[in-house]
Design a protein that fits this description.
By secondary structure, this protein is α+β, with helices and mostly antiparallel strands. It is built from 1 helix and 5 strands; from the N terminus they run E-E-E-E-H-E.
Length: 86
């Protein structure tokens, strides 16, 4: 699953983005990637691993909800039923 969120463009500042990706690894575990940064600038990538799908999904949804509360908007989603599926 992949979710790309972005802040609304401001006057002269480059928009900020967050990309949240949840992937299953070859051993059956789950990895949650969170990339944040400024469009066209520096970014930070964080990785978190989970043994169970339910825990990974809960972390994915929590990360998504936190960014939506901060004013980010969904620009692209892949592998979800909808941009705000639960």
């Amino acid at each position: 699953m992949r979710l790309y969120l972005q802040t609304p463009p401001a006057s002269s500042d480059a928009p900020r983005y967050v990309q949240i990706v949840l992937e299953q690894d070859l051993l059956g575990g789950w990895t949650l990637y969170r990339e944040t940064g400024t469009q066209g600038g520096k970014s930070t990538l964080r990785r978190e691993q989970f043994l169970e799908r339910d825990a990974a999904m809960a972390a994915f949804e929590k990360a998504r909800d936190a960014q939506l509360k901060r004013g980010f908007r969904v620009m692209f989603s892949q592998g979800l039923d909808g941009p705000h599926s639960r």
